[in-house]
Amino acid sequence: MDFVMAFIVGGLICAIGQILIDATKLTPAHVLVLFVTLGAVLSGVGLYQPLVDIGKAGATIPLTGFGHNLVIGVIQDVNEYGILGIFTGGLRSAAGGLTAAIFFGYLMAVFFNPKAK
Questions:
Q1: CA distance 14 to 100
Q2: Alpha-helical regions (H) of the chain
Q3: Structure pTM?
Q4: Left (φ > 0), alpha (ψ -120 to 50) or beta: where does 56 sit?
Q5: Domain residues for 92?
Q6: SS3 24
Q7: Is residue 52 part of a domain?
Q8: Of 18, 51, 61, 93, which is least surrounded by CB within 10 A?
Q9: Mean pLDDT, to the nearest integer, of 43-52?
Q10: pLDDT above 70 covers what percent of the chain?
């Protein structure tokens, strides 16, 4: 059942993004920023965690999940280190994902030899 709920929640988030791109003049970059910000705001007011509890990876993998991850890290570091946690929490919580993205992006560039257009 977890797979089904992840598919439904993740699919709804992606469908909302596609509708925003198709029905408005928002560019994909605008939708990216909107989703990260929306995930952070909803997480900050406590509304995103119930969605994560229901949708699991369907809610944590999309861009809204990245915003949620940043806020969770900031809250944890503020509780542990005080005001300094505002600056360290987001980086600490997202470091693994960012490192993986850079590493695998580098590997793809080495293996597939990208060319400028």
A1: 22
A2: 2-23, 28-44, 48-55, 57-60, 63-81, 85-112
A3: 0.84
A4: left
A5: 2-112
A6: coil
A7: yes
A8: 18
A9: 96
A10: 99
